[in-house]
Design brief:
By secondary structure, the protein is mainly alpha-helical. The protein is built from 15 helices and 5 strands. This is DUF222 domain-containing protein.
C-alpha cells in the first residue's frame, strides 16, 4: 500500500525534505516539504529555485511577499530568491534587479549558488561562472556548479582571443569529470555544460569541448561516452571522436566495470547501515534488495521511491530505483 504526503507528520516530512535536499534531490525535497508556516513557504520557494522550478518559486515567494507587513523592511533572502525566480522566468531586466538584491546579502556560498543558477538560466555565462566558483569555494557541492564553471572556462574568452585554449579545455573537462563522478543516474553534467554554452551563444566552444571529452583517454569510459553523445547531438563526426575503438569499446569497458562492482558487493551482505550516508549507483542494488526490507512500496509520499528498513538497526531508508540512490531518513539514524 502506498503512502501519501498527508499520511506523514509534518516534522518528519521536513526531516525527509532536508535529507533529500542534502543529496541534491531538490524536486523531491520540494514535493515532500510541508506548507504549514511562513518558514515552510520560504523554504519551499528556496527549494523551487534550486530545482529551477521558477513557476512554483514565484507562486510561493509572491504569496509570502504579499503577506508581509508593509511597515516592515523586506527580508533580503526572500528578495534575492524572488529576484532569482523572476530571472529564471525570463523577466526583462531581471539580472539587474538580482544584482541589486545580491548587494543586500552577505557573500555566502548559498547566495552565490542562487545567483549562479539564475544567471546560467539566461546565458549570463561570465556572471554564472564567477558565482559558481565562489559558491564552490564556500562549500556548495551541487554538481551543476562544476558544469557551470566549466562552461565559463571555455565560453568566456579573453578580449581578442579566438576561442578556448588547450589549458582551458583541459580545465573544463576536469571540472565536468568531477561533476560526473557524483552525478545521479539521470543527470548529465556534460550535456548541461554544453547546453549552457549553446544558450550563451557559444556552440563552437560546446563542440570543441565535446570532441575533446570524447577522445580524452584520462576520463573513465562512461565519461567519454557522455561526451560522445553530446558531440553527436551537436553534429560532430563520430569518426573524429573515438579513434581508439569507438563507442562499442566504451560500452564494453563500462559493462565490465559494472560487473566487477557487482561481484564486489555480492561478496558480503554484512550490515553497513549504521552511520551510512546512503549509497549511489547500480552497485548498491544487491545490498539494498537483499539486506533491507520493504516497509512501504513505491510511491511513498508521492515520490518515486520506496521506504525500506534495516532489520539489524531499524534505520529507515528512501530508495529511488530510477535515480539509483538510497538515503537514510530516520530521525537520529
Amino acid at each position: 500500500m502506498s503512502q501519501s504526503p498527508d499520511d506523514i507528520p509534518s516534522d518528519l516530512r521536513r526531516h525527509w525534505s532536508r535529507a533529500l535536499a542534502g543529496a541534491g534531490l531538490f524536486d523531491e525535497s520540494l514535493q515532500v516539504h510541508p506548507a504549514q508556516t511562513p518558514a515552510d513557504t520560504l523554504r519551499r520557494g528556496e527549494l523551487a529555485v534550486l530545482a529551477l522550478d521558477h513557476a512554483t518559486a514565484l507562486r510561493e515567494l509572491k504569496e509570502l511577499d504579499g503577506d508581509r507587513d508593509p511597515g516592515l523592511a523586506p527580508d533580503p533572502w526572500l528578495e534575492l530568491l524572488l529576484r532569482a525566480a523572476k530571472v529564471m522566468s525570463g523577466e526583462p531586466d531581471g539580472m539587474l534587479a538580482l544584482r541589486t538584491a545580491r548587494t543586500e546579502m552577505p557573500a555566502e556560498a548559498t547566495v552565490h549558488w542562487v545567483v549562479a543558477l539564475a544567471a546560467q538560466s539566461v546565458g549570463a555565462l561570465a556572471e554564472a561562472g564567477e558565482a559558481a566558483a565562489a559558491a564552490r569555494a564556500g562549500g556548495s557541492r551541487d554538481p551543476r556548479l562544476l558544469a557551470i564553471e566549466a562552461a565559463a572556462v571555455v565560453g568566456v574568452s579573453p578580449e581578442g582571443a579566438e576561442g578556448p585554449g588547450p589549458d582551458d579545455v583541459r580545465r573544463a573537462l576536469e571540472l565536468v569529470g568531477k561533476a560526473q563522478h557524483v552525478a545521479l543516474a539521470d543527470e548529465d553534467p556534460a550535456a548541461f555544460a554544453a547546453d549552457l554554452l549553446v544558450k550563451a551563444g557559444r556552440p563552437d566552444a560546446a563542440g570543441r569541448l565535446a570532441m575533446a571529452g570524447a577522445g580524452e583517454r584520462s576520463l573513465p569510459p562512461e565519461g567519454r561516452q557522455k561526451w560522445h553523445a553530446v558531440a553527436r547531438g551537436l553534429g560532430a563526426s563520430g569518426r573524429r571522436l573515438t579513434p581508439t575503438g569507438g563507442i562499442n569499446v566504451v560500452r564494453a569497458l563500462t559493462g565490465r566495470r559494472e560487473a566487477a562492482r557487482r561481484r564486489e558487493v555480492e561478496r558480503s551482505l554484512v550490515c553497513r547501515c549504521y552511520g551510512s550516508t546512503g549509497w549511489l549507483g547500480p552497485a548498491r542494488q544487491h545490498y539494498v534488495d537483499n539486506h533491507l526490507t520493504v516497509v512501504v512500496p513505491e510511491p511513498v509520499a508521492g515520490l518515486s521511491a520506496r521506504l525500506l528498513r534495516c532489520p539489524a538497526t531499524a534505520i529507515l531508508f528512501l530508495d529511488f530505483p530510477a535515480r539509483q540512490i538510497t538515503l537514510p531518513v530516520s530521525i537520529g539514524g
